[in-house]
Structure formats: structure tokens, C-alpha cells
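Hello K.,

You asked for the raw outputs rather than the summary table, so here they are, unedited. I folded two proteins back to back in the same session to keep the settings identical. This is the first:
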Amino acid sequence: MTIAILYFLIINLIGLTLMGIDKRRAIRGAWRISEASLFTAALLGGALGCILGMNCFRHKTRHWYFKYGMPAIFFVQVLIGVLLFRRFF
């Protein structure tokens, strides 16, 4: 259980950091992090971090697929987590 919690903390921190880095690069006009990479981080468990990064850095908030996709991914992850928790505890 401790390993799972540590994993989700790290992957959410990565998602938050990726959003911040991509926002900074967007402002500077530099090479950007692909949207596929941002969604991959979310799908690997970092959806909450990506959502926090979107709101904190005001990044990707106008794109409907981020605006609705990230919360949808997070909802599914929470649902899976609740189902697994109920099954094993």
C-alpha cells in the first residue's frame, strides 16, 4: 500500500511539473511537450497533478479535450481506486 501511495504522489508531481514546464516553454516560444505526453502522464495516474497544473499555471484550460478529458480520467481513476479498495479491504 505504501508503494502505491508513493507512486501516485510521484506521478502526480510529474504531471504538475510537466504542465508547468510546458506553460513556460509556450511563453518563451520554445519546443513544447506533446499533448500525448501530458495525457500519458494523466493516464498513468497523474490526472490530479495535471488538473492542478492546468489551474495553477492557467495552461491548456481553453482546450475542451483537456478541460473535460483530464477530469474524466481522474474520475475513472478514483472509481477504480474505490472499487479496488472495497475489494481488498
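The second followed immediately with the same parameters:
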Amino acid sequence: MDEKPLLTFPCRYVLKITAIAAEITLEALLAIVKPHVPSITAADVAVKNSSQGKYVSFSVSFIAQSQEQLDALYRDLTSRKEIVFVL
């Protein structure tokens, strides 16, 4: 039985990333994402600090080209010690 893909590419995709605020900046996050999404800019990222300031969340919006691209980006982000989780 053939399963339908969950996403049809290319498509708009929003990646939610939570990190330890003291260990990452917007520029550092962009440096991680840019090899996977060359067109990404700071304007594509919403940043919000936690109420206590320990964590920072990033909402990264971009046009995803393939499941392979998303998988590689997810692997890269989750391999970093400063990244707490990625959705």
C-alpha cells in the first residue's frame, strides 16, 4: 500500500526551536540553518525569551524543498548541545 506524503514540496514550513539563551544567538542559529536553507535571513525568524530568561525560542519560517532537507536540518539542530528541542 502506498502512503501519501504528509507534506507536498515545496511548501511553507515553520520550525520551532528552543535553546539555552546564554549559549546561542540569532546569528549563531542562522549559521546552523543557512547551509540547509540558503535564503534564510533574520527577518524569517521570530525570537522570544522565556519569562525567566533561561531559554529562547525561535520560530523559523521558510520554504521547505524536500523531506530530506527537513531531516538534515533537524539532525543538525538536535546534535547541538545548546538546542533543547526542535519541533
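The first strand starts at residue 11 and ends at 20.

Happy to rerun anything if the numbers look odd on your end.

Regards,
P.
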